[in-house]
Specification:
Elements (H helix, E strand, L loop, with lengths): L4 H36 L7 H24 L3 H7 L1 H6 L3 H8 L5 H7 L4 H14 L4 H28 L9 H12 L11 H43 L4 H8 L3
Helix pairs in contact: 1-2, 1-7, 7-8, 8-9, 8-10
Length: about 250
C-alpha cells in the first residue's frame, strides 16, 4: 500500500515538506485564477477577494523565507542563494493599489506572475521527491519548470498580442506560438508588441538551455541500463558483450 502524501511529507521532509506543499497548493490557486481571468477577460485587479488572497499568500511566502532563514545553518549563504525568493514574496500589487499608483493593464497583468516564481520552485521540489534517482529528479523538475514557463508565457503573450496582432485571435494561437518558440523552430506568428518580443527572446533562450538536459538524461539512462546488464552477466557467470568481443578478436 502506498504511503499517504501527508505521511510521506511529514516523515521524510518534516516542516520544510509541509511548507512546500502549502506553497504549491496556494500557487496552483494563483495559476487557476490567472487562467480563468485571462480566458474570460475579468479585470482581476478590481476584485477585492483576489487581492486579499494574494496578500495572504505573499505573507505566507515571507513567513516561509524567515523560518528557513532562522533554521539555516549558514544564514549568510542561505540569504544570498535565496534572495530572489524574498523579492518575489513581496505583494507588489497590493502595495501599488494601496499607494494609488497606476500602470498599463499589460504591466499590471505581468506583475501577477511574480509570486509564481516561488510556487515553481516548490513544484520542482515536490515533483523531485517522487523520482527514483537524482538524474530523474532533475529531469522531471526541469521538465515541469519548462512546461510551466511555456504556459505562463502563452498567457502573457495572448493578453498583450490578441488586441494588436491579427494572427493571435484565440488562446490556442498563443499556445502554439509558445511551444514552437521554445523549440527554437519558430512559428508563423510574429510578435508585434514589446512584451511579446521580449517573451520571444526569453522562450528561445530557455529552450536552448533546457533541451540539452534531455540529451544528458537519455544518456544517463542508457549508461545505467548497460551497467545493470553488465552486473547481471557477472552474477550469472556469463561473459558480457565486451568480453565476448575481446575473446573473438584475433590474437
Amino acid at each position: 500500500m502506498k504511503m499517504a502524501l501527508y505521511d510521506f511529507v511529514l516523515r521524510k521532509k518534516g516542516i520544510y515538506g509541509i511548507l512546500h506543499i502549502v506553497i504549491l497548493l496556494l500557487s496552483l490557486f494563483l495559476i487557476i485564477s490567472i487562467s480563468i481571468d485571462t480566458f474570460k477577460g475579468i479585470p482581476f485587479y478590481t476584485q477585492s477577494v483576489y487581492m486579499k488572497v494574494q496578500l495572504w499568500i505573499c505573507v505566507l511566502f515571507l513567513v516561509d523565507f524567515v523560518l528557513e532563514f532562522i533554521l539555516a545553518d549558514n544564514k549568510k549563504r542561505y540569504f544570498t542563494t535565496h534572495f530572489i525568493f524574498l523579492l518575489v514574496a513581496i505583494p507588489y500589487q497590493n502595495i501599488i493599489a494601496y499607494m494609488g499608483w497606476t500602470f498599463s493593464p499589460e504591466v499590471t497583468y505581468m506583475l501577477r506572475f511574480i509570486p509564481l516564481v516561488r510556487g515553481g520552485y516548490a513544484l520542482a521540489i515536490v515533483v523531485g521527491w517522487f523520482t527514483y534517482n537524482r538524474a530523474s529528479g532533475l529531469f522531471v523538475s526541469y521538465l515541469t519548470m519548462l512546461l510551466a514557463t511555456v504556459y505562463f508565457a502563452s498567457l502573457a503573450f495572448f493578453i498583450t498580442e490578441h488586441t494588436a496582432n491579427p494572427l493571435v485571435t484565440k488562446y490556442t494561437d498563443a499556445l502554439w506560438w509558445a511551444f514552437m518558440d521554445v523549440t527554437t523552430v519558430g512559428s508563423n506568428i510574429i510578435a508585434v508588441t514589446t512584451t511579446g518580443r521580449v517573451l520571444s527572446v526569453v522562450l528561445a533562450a530557455l529552450g536552448m538551455m533546457m533541451f540539452p538536459i534531455f540529451t544528458v538524461y537519455i544518456t544517463s539512462i542508457i549508461e545505467r541500463r548497460n551497467k545493470e546488464k553488465q552486473e547481471y552477466y557477472e552474477e550469472k557467470g556469463e561473459p558480457t558483450h565486451k568480453q565476448q568481443a575481446n575473446t573473438a578478436a584475433p590474437q
